């Protein structure tokens, strides 16, 4: 099997695994209407990847990062982001409450999801920019952070508008602020922080590869 075939096989394997995760988490979600709304993101990303697959196939690293993020998102969509029972899982595993140990008074899963958005998707964004002609260098590390922050802001605006239109319990569920008035700002900051970490790691990895090739 050639390199290109092995690569496509890996991508198809990830697609198959995600469809399995999606199907399992689509069974009796906590709020079917919220689940449908949250899956609009999945539909949009899938449409973008499918429409551009002739011009761009993500690397194994980028595809794996996208897969991990979508799995986190589907978990939030299944339970609703404010009610993912991670503390119950942690208590069953360790006998202790993670929330109590960390001093958390709210469900933190949505914070994890926003942080993961930057941490896991900044590298694929950089890869797309380079495929479009951006030269590897400082701007290829700065622009993914900028895109993550700007798209996070757009998402928060869309989320707010959607909650206003939906109103009532569904609007509050979709918004998932958990009575924190600074929730949008914190979410954007976490996404940007995750992206910065991803780009710092990318920069060090690229430097290490150059050093290795230079000494080889």
UniProtKB/TrEMBL annotation:
The chain crosses the membrane at residues 36-56, 63-81, 188-206. Keywords: Membrane, Transmembrane, Transmembrane helix. Pfam families: DUF2238 (PF09997). Coiled coil: none annotated. It comes from the Bacteria. This is DUF2238 domain-containing protein. It comes from Stutzerimonas azotifigens. The lineage of its organism: Bacteria, Pseudomonadati, Pseudomonadota, Gammaproteobacteria, Pseudomonadales.
